[in-house]
Write a structure and sequence with these properties.
Blueprint: E1 2-5, H1 10-20, E2 24-27, H2 35-38, H3 40-45, E3 53-56, E4 59-61, H4 64-75, H5 89-115, H6 125-147, H7 158-174, H8 180-190, H9 193-201, H10 203-213
Parallel strand pairs: 1-2
Antiparallel strand pairs: 1-3, 3-4
Helix pairs in contact: 1-4, 1-7, 1-9, 5-6, 5-7, 7-8
């Protein structure tokens, strides 16, 4: 049985598992508690103490995009990962990783600055740098959407899971306003049945989104991977 530890960016992994129809279990991880005292089992899986983590038999992994690539390679083939010979492969690869390295990490730092940092640090140079990074990477997403409905072309792939997660996190936790092309794109990708099943499985994420919808304000996500 595949075990996913933690939500946060683990939502990407759960969404992928739902798209692939693979059996899994989700183990909650509360990063707000003292893991040394309260969850040493998780620390034995990932001594770094960040989420998500994956256990699949004798395999343990802790990077969300790497986990996705592993699952598709080990438990595929799947149309969510175009073959290297497929003309869509280069764009698939680019946006699979841009969703975290370009967009997701910028949102993580920006979220911390805007929601956790002391008031005097909320408009720091680093926060501005991350806002600019998100904006420049978003231009690539926007250009791609002018060419095709999804990041790799005409079909939904794991790259869309990666990018959608980052765009939604930017909206929800940083107050980033998406333009109409990105809003329509997120509506397409998050309207998939597997996304709804992933939301139902990730109860903390679903509750967090509900709180935001009710006007409770942004609640920063735990440490990413």
């Amino acid at each position: 049985m595949i075990t996913v530890w933690g939500e946060g960016r683990g939502f990407r992994v759960v969404w992928l598992l739902e798209e692939m129809g693979l059996d899994y279990r989700l183990r909650p991880v509360n990063l707000l508690q003292d893991l040394e005292k309260e969850d040493r089992e998780f620390l034995s899986i990932n001594p770094g103490g960040f989420i998500p983590a994956l256990v699949d038999g004798d395999v343990t992994m802790v990077e969300s995009i790497a986990i996705m690539e592993y699952l598709m390679a080990r438990h595929g083939p799947t149309p969510l990962a175009p073959a290297p010979s497929d003309p869509t492969f280069p764009m698939y690869q680019q946006f699979l990783h841009l969703g975290e390295a370009g967009l997701g990490m910028a949102v993580y730092v920006l979220s911390g600055a805007r929601n956790i940092a002391p008031e005097s640090d909320r408009n720091s140079w680093s926060a501005g740098q991350m806002a600019e990074q998100f904006a420049t990477r978003l231009r690539l997403v926007r250009r791609q959407l002018a060419r095709s409905p999804y990041m790799a072309g005409e079909a939904f792939t794991a790259a869309d899971i990666s990018v959608t997660y980052a765009l939604q996190l930017g909206e929800r936790n940083c107050g980033i306003t998406l333009a109409e092309p990105e809003r329509s794109y997120v509506a397409r990708t998050s309207g998939r049945p597997a996304y709804a099943r992933a939301m139902d499985a990730c109860k903390d994420t679903k509750a967090w989104v509900a709180r935001l919808a009710a006007g409770a304000g942004a609640i920063p996500e735990p440490k990413p991977t």
